[in-house]
Records
---
Amino acid sequence: MSELLSLLTLFLCFLIILIMAKFFGKSGLFAYSAVVVIAANMQVLKLVQYSSMNEPIALGTVLFSTVFVVDNILTEYYGVETARKCVAVSFFSYLFFSLVMKITIWHPEVDCKKCINLHRELKNVFSPCFVFFISSLASYAVSQLTDILVFSTLKKLMKSKCLSFRSFISMAISTFVDNFVFSVLAWIVFSKHPISLFLVLKTYVFTAYMIRLIIAALCVPLVRLSGTVISGKLHV
């Protein structure tokens, strides 16, 4: 059941990416990335168990992985600077959203028996551990910029050929960087009870990375297809 729901999520993401690219150009892809970064960081509060894996993984893994394909689309058809600007917009959108929701839950709870008060629910959802919050921001910035750098470097070396290969390699490298940076910061650098690097790699990095490699492979055709969709919007 979890596999089917994840595939449905992935298909919906692909559809929305194409729609946003078609009708809104790069601005639509900026909006998609900003929304996905926020939504994925909320989804990580829920774990999902796949039948092919022994350990559960964070639900946001599937949704967040699609941000990397948007990086590749922007880099390929709009240029490196546009892709980096998208990363900055998404980064500060998530930061702003988190700060606003933090201020929201700081408001005193109202004791009203006749009112519907969801203060506790809001507090549970929007009070992430500070360590995870900082680790998430850092890993997002580093991995996204890595994706753009690898993709653009391969594009120059291959003279804009082998788009599918460039897309898969850049996503494979950058998603590993994302997992690695977050896990090392959250469980070793900032943790009150650090664990060994070997255990971090085994438990937190490689488990989710297998899923991300599969998603990267599924995302590859989308980069080429998006070129057809936005071909008339390259001047936007």
---
Amino acid sequence: MKAISTALPEVLLIEPKVFGDDRGFFFESFNERFFNEAVGRPVTFVQDNHSRSARHVLRGLHYQIEHTQGKLVRVAKGSVYDIAIDLRRSSPRFGQWIGVELSEANQRQLWIPEGFGHGFMVTSDSADFLYKTTDYWAPAAERCIAWNDPTLAIDWPLNGATPMVSGKDHNGTLLVDAEVFV
């Protein structure tokens, strides 16, 4: 495995070593020792989640203000454009975001630590999205930044399409009005 730095230093792109031949492939999708060394601290995951979404489904930008969640995300089938945004007001990178393609072809993962928001948009016919979290889902603590916030100006790869979003995501808060981390 290899950890690759991003423009948001705490957010890491994890690239596994894939062993493949005409029978298929094998790779370690998680190795606690490697992961903790890469992020520089012990991390405990408490929950694994799996979602399936159709093309142009956009989920996010989500975070929990309490019971904060770090997320290790990857795509098992299909492809997504994945976003991490720094929501720590004290950070010099507050409000900055990165976007990466995660797919079954590149097998990459993204580590999004606590204090960051997360969202993704499906760019294939459908996608199976898998993620580990460092805390449990806490509906009362869940928050959502508007996916189309003009100050963030996220360059979603819509190519003229209208994204399919949930009611919650449709009514996301603008960053300027959002409850964020200190």
---
Amino acid sequence: MILDMRPMLRGEVRRIAIDYSFSPQLPEGVEPNGCTRVCGEVTDNAGYMRLTLCANVGYRGVCARCLETVEDTFTVELARTVAAEGTLTREQLEENVDEYAVVQNGLLDLDELVGEEIFLTFPMRVLCSPDCPGLCPKCGKPLKEGACGCNTREVDPRLAILANYEWAKDEDDKS
């Protein structure tokens, strides 16, 4: 959405409400699930313009640990100071790139701002739950369904020869 900021820049309005849907680019392996709703406002307080937005992104993906399908919503909140083109120096913009939204020719590109924020803050791995135990490395059973009974004790192959000695067998029986 391209927001026309000219009425605010001329001092005709002090608040512009924002409410629209859009389709963001999501990381590879993650699909949008429904529309992404973006709500917020731009306010002008004696020449200090502030943009606040909230986007709810519905998505579908696969859990990185147990491979279960995950459908969830990711929420992104965005707050920027709005500055007209030419009011900030190049150094100010480069040092504070995440603090400003620059109005160019009286217009503000919200899709670019929101899309970039979603892409940068979206989790690197989709999980069905933060404490998902994943899959058994031997049989592949999802561990959240319970223990599979596989032997989880692994012997270092360099020390496997020691299992042939009597004292090592006695230690195994004790553990």
---
Amino acid sequence: MKPHRNDGIDPAARSRARRRALQALYAWQLSDSPVDKVIEQFRAEQDMDIADLEYFEALVRGVVAHHAELDAVLSRYIDRTMAQVDPIERAVLRIAAFELAYRPDVPYRVVINEAIETTKRFGAEQGHTYVNGVLDRAALEWRAAEIQGARR
């Protein structure tokens, strides 16, 4: 039997980590505070016991460190500038882009589904359809081999 890719990973804790990362990145986007300050403040204010804290921090630090590169790729698939994208949707797109580019251990379908569900919960009414369309195209660039393998 083939081992599962996410052995030892709690999917619910990862989902909560993504939602908290969204909230932290939203705050970072609006305040432009140093990432350490955002993470410290978020840890003090939020109940992080039920989230995958290590994954939360990896997402927030990764997005902040690579946001210009992620935005450059995402900008090829959006119909406006990144600054014009709704702040919630922008943060969701950046998190998903980071996972697609830097977390090959997370299947692309999981990345896209989590982004859609998070946008449904926190974003504009039809924001999830926009996020889905952008990420479907971006995934072809970042995860072409995985997508081709899944289609066989």
